[in-house]
Design a protein that fits this description.
about 90 residues, alpha+beta, four-stranded antiparallel beta sheet, about 20% helix, elongated
Length: about 90
């Protein structure tokens, strides 16, 4: 007789809910590549947080400096607003 094995799946729904979707990340990169006013430094590291389903906080940073942007999406998944909200130095 084979032993019975029970699997228990555990999810961190809070972390999943705060993670940007692939479509959102692609829209952000496309927006940054096509922006004629600001030339973004793609050599910087990127941190993202999604406090709401249609809002992302993007932190572009290197070792001692960073810029935080707020990105708001419309219902179609397109970027409605992309603005700098702060800068920081360490």
């Amino acid at each position: 007789m084979l032993p019975t094995v029970k699997f228990k799946t555990m999810w961190n729904y809070n972390a999943i809910d705060k993670t940007p979707t692939v479509a959102q990340v692609k829209a952000i990169i496309d927006y940054m590549e096509n922006d004629q006013e600001i030339k973004y430094n793609f050599g910087m590291m990127m941190g993202m947080e999604r406090p709401k389903p249609n809002k992302i906080k993007l932190d572009l940073n290197d070792a001692g400096f960073g810029i935080i942007y707020e990105i708001i999406f419309n219902d179609d998944g397109n970027i409605k607003e992309f603005k700098e909200i702060s800068r920081w130095m360490s």
